[in-house]
User: Fold this.
Amino acid sequence: MTRPLVVGNWKMHGLSAQLADIEALGVSMTDRPAKADVLICPPFTLIERAARIAGSFVAIGAQNCHHETSGTWTGEISARMLKDSGASAVIVGHSERRQHQGESSERVAAKANAAVAAGLLAIICIGETQAERAGGGALDACAAQLSLSVPKGIAASAFAIGYEPLWAIGSGQVPTAAQITEMHGHIRQCLVARLGASGNAVRIVYGGSVKPANARSILALSDVGGVLVGGASLKPDEFEAIVRAAAP
Ligand code: PEP
Assistant:
């Protein structure tokens, strides 16, 4: 079994003072290095410094990248730049970017391609809206997003899927165990249909109101290969408790 992946998405939070939290987590992880892959995605401004102090057991990633390698794209940051700054992964297609920056699934696939070409793990996010869930269309909505957001020809080892129902992000509402199991199983089927048996090796991480109190039970569900954590990743004690739930 692959190690669970625990991702902290800091969003637009974090100044120099919070680097100490990353350093402390790195130190506390030394007692269980092989049990989970821990990744913190701070804002761009902290990546290089975070990567220097995180230690060997905490990796640093980014929350977005541009789809081109370089060029006349004022204000943008390429995957190669992230790699050069010390990042080892990047989240692409987070629902906040799909919603507020109008990122299409095709654009997300281009970003994932750029990430992989730069040597970064691409964490490709998908998830249904509340209306899609209520209307019985959650599985189809996620399958459609998956099909367009995962680049053609990508290797199973080069990416992970973040399943994040939009209605669960930051809301305190978490899908039932049955809903998570059903969706992760469906995503797995789509991955295997797409990639063959190697689709079984892709980690599917759940995101949406993960807290210390629910992390262990979510991580125990079938086809849950980790968790993607927003709000609780900003609270060092809570994030460490979630990491420990993944690496007991
Ligand atoms: C997220 O935004 O990716 C997320 C999962 O947030 P939260 O944990 O706060 O729901």
